[in-house]
Amino acid sequence: MPVEKTPFRAAVVGTGGIVTGSHLPALREHADRVRLVAAVDVDPTRLAAFRELAADEGVTGYGGLAEMLAAERPDLVLIGTPPSLHAEQAEAALRAGAWVLCEKPLCLSLAEYARIASAEKASEGATGGGGPYASVVFQHRYGSGAVHARELLRTRALGKPLVAHCQTTWYRDTAYYSVPWRGRWDTEGGGPTMGHGIHQMDLLLHLLGDWTEIRAMAGRLVHDIESEDVSTALVRFADGAMATVVNSVLSPDEVSRIRIDCADATVELTHLYGHANDDWSYTPAPHLLEDEARTAHWLAPTADLPSSHAAQLAGFLDAMEKGERPPGSGGEAYRTLEFLAALYKSAFTGRPVLAGEIGPGDPYYDAMHGGHPDWAPTAPKEQ
User: Fold this and answer.
1) Which Gene3D superfamilies does the protein's record reference (predicted)?
2) What is the pLDDT of residues 30-69, one digit of tens each?
């Protein structure tokens, strides 16, 4: 008889909307593989409300992360707190031997990422390899439509990628920025580049691979905040493809879009906060309009798995079971974070930035604003 696996023991840190609305349903969808045992929140009222919501799980509540880690020794920690807390909480969980799945951004700078990578390495050494690892929630990579598109692009079934567009044009009003940690470098890490467009930009990199050069602009056009409320960029990829990127919280007609024009077809994803198969479209080049033998397998797969936290959690649990680095961690997580740092550096310095140029000693390694006098909150003004 097959041996029945004991479910992983999981804890959530933060019990706000993203945890109640996305992580809790994802955990319940995979209840045969993972069991929620604990929740952490500094707000007793919010914690009590979450425990009532998760009454079927029998969750134990804690006011602090360290207390929970010592008492529960969970296998998995899911982090859904404000961004400024992510790095410290991920490090603590890793050093306690727990795998980490953290809401975006994983951390606020490349320097913070280095600390997380160091905690991974120390914990991996203590266990003899095979984890624990920290991964960031990039649920748009998941779902059958994204998996299908990536495979077509990877195998060059659509021809060589040539031109791309990545668009996150959303709308956020003044009330949105009344939440104290939003729009500030030290608590959010940036504006729509860091907090909103990061999902589509990560998916673009997931589909097209390594980038080599970026030229960008950013501005505060409406909101009275420290960070930007709009950014744009031109990007060159390692295989020669070129892309435009737009991130905005000033756009009443909200949309999230990725379009990639290849030699033989255009693939396009249009959605807002999540996608299913019907949100993807494929348009053959004129010379292939009648070639059904070539284009028939471009159609979306029969099974329709929408992008979601549950879809990503399935792959994460697979990695945990195998003791392998999960998708969206390590070099993949670093590539996206480096891309954001390079976008900010290019926008604030007015110069192109190459992949790999931002390292220790570069001000944009330590903070996305790079200490620029027009953007850093406490930087001295130029004389």
Assistant:
1) Dihydrodipicolinate Reductase, domain 2, NAD(P)-binding Rossmann-like Domain
2) 999 999 999 999 999 999 999 999 999 999 999 999 999 9
Q: Tokens standing for 182?
A: 């939003």
* SS3 assignment, position 180: coil
Length of the chain: 383
CB–CB of 153/232 below 8 Å?
no
Alpha carbon of 80 to those of 18, 44, 59, 266, 310: distances in Å?
Answer: 6, 16, 16, 36, 15
Q: How far apart are CA 51 and CA 57, in angstroms?
A: 9
- E strands in the chain: 8-13, 34-40, 60-62, 76-79, 99-102, 134-136, 161-171, 211-219, 230-237, 242-248, 250-262, 265-271, 280-284, 353-354
Q: Which of 225, 195, 10, 4 is nearest to 98 (CA)?
A: 10
- With 0-12 / 13-18 / 19 or more C-beta atoms within 10 angstroms meaning exposed / middle / buried, residue 240 is exposed
Segment 156-213, tens digit of pLDDT:
999 999 999 999 999 999 999 999 999 999 999 999 999 999 999 999 999 999 999 9
The identity of residue 241, as a single letter, is: A
Q: Answer yes or no: is pLDDT of 299 > 90.
A: no
* 92 and 69 Cβ atoms separated by less than 8 Å: yes
